[in-house]
Amino acid sequence: MNFTAAYRIFTALFMLIVTIGLGMKLNDFTSVIYVFVPLLLMLGISFMPFFKQRKLRLILFSAPIVILYGFGFYPWLTNYQEVAVSSSTSTLDFIIIPVWATLYGAGFVVLHEIALGVARAFNWGR
Predict the structure, then answer these.
(1) pTM (2 d.p.)
(2) Which of 3, 50, 70, 118 sits between 20 and 30 A of 42, alpha carbons compared?
(3) Tens digit of pLDDT for each residue in 72-92?
(4) How distant is the alpha carbon of residue 115 from its chain centre?
């Protein structure tokens, strides 16, 4: 099994874990979109030739999403009702956390490509 196939399996399992863990606690369709769009982006980029060329691009893009979901966003989601009652910005946080995770991933890929260009320009690593 190659790396791309393993990545797709991991992403699908991660989506399944998030779905089961939420236990259909999300009633609003827009909240479901905010939860699954970054995860679907993780799965979708594995089909793009740009990301398939280098394994590190896939890892750099998906790492912030997995880390933020696993340690910040996902536990917050499971207690969404309690957080929504106690916080006036809970809906805004709900939108911002997945967006920032996706932007961090894209930013890491851009920084990686810039570093590769600089390394090639100065012939480093040869």
Answers:
(1) 0.73
(2) 118
(3) 676 666 666 666 666 666 666
(4) 22
